[in-house]
Amino acid sequence: MGTNKCKEHFYPRNFLLSYDKPHHFTTFEWGWPSGYLLWRVVWALYHIIWIILTGVYAWQWTTTKSNEIKWFIYLTHWAYFVLTLSSLMELIAVIHIHCKRTDILKGECKEMSGYLKFVWVMFNVSNTASIAVSILFWALLYSDTYPLTTVDIATHLLNSAYVLSNLIITAVPVRIYHFFHPVLFSTLYIIFTVIYQEAGGSNGLDKPYIYSVIDWRTPDTAALYSVLAALVLTPISHVIVFIFYLIRKAIFDACLKNTGQ
C-alpha cells in the first residue's frame, strides 16, 4: 500500500496541472473553509505590508535616493514579490469560490479551473523561491559583520517560516515534478542578470553587478554559481517543500487512523 502511494508521485501525468480535488485549494488539510478564508486574508495583508516596507526601507542598502529604484533588480525582492502575489491570488481565488463556485467548495467539482492552475503554479514558484533565497542569503551573503535589518529577517527568515507553516496546514497539493516551475523562474532571473549587467547596470551600492557571486565580468564563476542556483539549489528547495507536504499528509493520515475514520 505504501509503495503504491510512493509510486503515485512519480507518474508522468504529475508534470501537468490536472487534479480531481480542486476544493483542496480552499481549505486546511482537516477542512474548515471559513477559517481558511481568514487565514488567507491575514497572510495576504501581511505580505502586502512587508513588500511595501521593503521599498520604504530601500535606503538601507543604497548609496543615493535615486538608487532606490534598483529594488527591482534583486532576487530577494523578485521572490518576495512572487510570494506576495501568490498570497493575493490565493485569497482572490478563495473569495471567488466562496461566492461563485460553491460546487468546488463542496467537493462536487472534479476539474481544475484555469485560475486555480495559475494559483498552483504561483504556489510552487513562491514556496521554492522563498526557501532557495533564504538558503542563499544565510549561506553566501550573511556574516557576523553584516548589518542585519528587520527587512532582512522578514525577507530571508520569516518568509520561509510562513512557507513551511503554510505547507503543514493547507490542503494544497505539492508535486515533485513541478520543480520545473521554480527552475524556470530562476533561469529567468539569471537571464535578467546577464542582460542588466551587459547594459551597464549597477546595484544599490553602485557596484557593476547585482550580486558579487554572479558578476559576469568573471563569466566562469558567475555561470557556475548560476547553474548551481538554478539547477541544483532550486530543485533541492522544491524537494524540501515536497517533504513538508509528505509530513503533512502523514500526520493527517495518522490522525484519521487514530480516530477510526
Task: Please give a structural write-up.
- By secondary structure, the chain is mainly alpha-helical.
- Helix content is 64%, strand content 0%.
- It is built from 8 helices and no strands.
- The two termini are 17 Å apart.
- This is Protein rolling stone.
- Keywords: Membrane, Transmembrane, Transmembrane helix.
- One of its GO terms (cellular component) is membrane.
Comma- or semicolon-separated keywords:
261 residues; mainly alpha; globular; single chain
Mean pLDDT: 94
Percentage beta strand: under 5%
Give the total of domains: 1
Number of strands: 0
In percent, how helical is the residue content?
55-70%
Gross morphology: globular
The structural class is mainly alpha
Quaternary status of these chains? single chain
Number of helices: 8
Largest sheet: number of strands, sense, barrel closure: none
Radius of gyration: 20 Å
Q: State the end-to-end distance.
A: 17 Å
Low-confidence stretches: none
What sequence of helices (H) and strands (E) makes up the elements?
HHHHHHHH
